């Protein structure tokens, strides 16, 4: 296999055709000429809600990185909803993380019950023990989020995959934080990988998009039928822009991880800070599993200041750490998660996302801001 830089640029590339563009431009069409043949004959496009050449180009690239076949969705939540609703039926038992992205938990709490799903939530660090006890018996679908957002806990995907397979359940992994370069859940035995590519994969904070990758053709057809019926697909412009942006994924991740290592050290030694988490820092509770299971680090770090006022002083004194939600983008950002109300975190808990500004500048700016706390 080629390296991450090569794959970020070249994944899914079609054979070179003289005169064709290196990277095709977006095709915005809604209907396509049908002529006098039935829609879909010879794989020809008929209507943009079903498919489009621009989506296929993006999906071929992401699918190659994931080691599966990819379908793009309008957002990460559209992709997660598709997995939860297209792969289950009324009465099914579904297991979700209790400490994962809050919108997934909100979807489960406020919507899924109405469709007759029996939802249970389990902490990321406890799902392994549950699986080992055989307590996944009778489940239809298990969703993991590893590393979890925002606490960055990790679980053993291969071990849970063995248990879900034995139980006859499907295993889906939310791979948003890791990215397809950082973790390949399909190779670890998962049936589905789902992600918000709004985050690091596209990485410029200027679009929303998500995807699901699978290896099973029947599962892919099921998800494609769901996407077609619900219209949950991205626009061609977003798919094209995400494809263009992922060419630099390897470079961005490398800088983000380099900065995260420096920032995690600084945070850990500063008296104003407690509870620093970065899974690739020796001594972190996720360290052993992260280094065994994942392929490379990324730039998401979490830490706790004393309270909301301390977080306010930090932000007021910083020039380069911008208050914003989301993560994985080129800007370095800080999100005081308690302000959103969805996560079980203390008021001073911060999720930091290292961008691609110079590491030295970010460290210097953070030291100044921490000293002001
Ligand atoms: C882990 C995780 N999954 C899914 C999502 C949802 O993604 P989107 O905002 O693209 O719908 C997010 C967004 O923050 C996330 O962090």
List the helices and strands and how they pair.
Blueprint: H1 4-10, H2 53-66, E1 69-73, H3 76-86, E2 93-97, H4 102-110, E3 118-122, H5 127-132, E4 139-145, H6 157-167, E5 170-174, E6 192-196, E7 210-214, H7 217-230, H8 236-246, H9 249-269, E8 274-277, H10 287-293, E9 300-304, H11 308-317, E10 322-323, E11 333-336, E12 349-353, H12 359-372
Parallel strand pairs: 2-3, 2-4, 4-5, 5-6, 10-11
Antiparallel strand pairs: 1-7, 6-7, 8-9, 9-12, 11-12
Helix pairs in contact: 2-8, 9-12, 11-12
Features:
binds pyridoxal-5'-phosphate; seven-stranded mixed β-sheet; alpha/beta; five-stranded mixed β-sheet; 373 residues; 12 strands
Description:
With 373 residues, the chain is of the alpha/beta class. The protein is 36% helix and 15% strand. It has helices at 4-10, 53-66, 76-86, 102-110, 127-132, 157-167, 217-230, 236-246, 249-269, 287-293, 308-317, 359-372; strands at residues 69-73, 93-97, 118-122, 139-145, 170-174, 192-196, 210-214, 274-277, 300-304, 322-323, 333-336, 349-353. The protein has a seven-stranded mixed sheet. A five-stranded mixed sheet has the order 8-9-12-11-10, with helices on one face. Helix 2 (53-66) runs parallel beside helix 8 (236-246). 48% of the residues are buried. The model has no long low-confidence stretch (mean pLDDT 97). Pyridoxal-5'-phosphate is lined by residues 75-77, 80, 101, 103, 145, 149, 174, 176, 196, 198, 208, 210, 326. Residues 75-77, 80, 101, 103, 145, 149, 174, 176, 196, 198, 208, 210, 326 line the site of pyridoxal-5'-phosphate.
